[in-house]
Amino acid sequence: EEGAPGRRGDRDRGEEGPAERGPGAAFHMFVLMEDLLDKLKLLSYEEEALRRHNMRPLSRHYFALPTNPGEQFFMFCTLAAWLITKAGRPFEQPQEYDDPNAVISNVLSELRSF
User: Fold this and answer.
1) Which domain holds residue 83?
2) Does 7 map to a domain?
3) Angstrom distance (rounded) from CA 28 to CA 34
């Protein structure tokens, strides 16, 4: 039966369940977050981005675990705006209560223009 989950048809389409990806797949997001944090530290994000907005430094797993989606989204937008500005493009810092769809649209539009 090709329509049943976990059958050959699913694997042919590139859809893998956790068992097919290996035992470490569940922890891959934590590794990615630690790499992201290392790169942000190399760019001095604590001094340049966080102090300006009076924000706390990120934990090793800040974006890997969904704890407070609103706060995490605002932190993501703040960091995205800072990185775009750091790359030499003027970008207005999003405000906490801006429309999330508009903010993401602006970030993606700016990134596409790179």
Assistant:
1) 24-113
2) no
3) 10
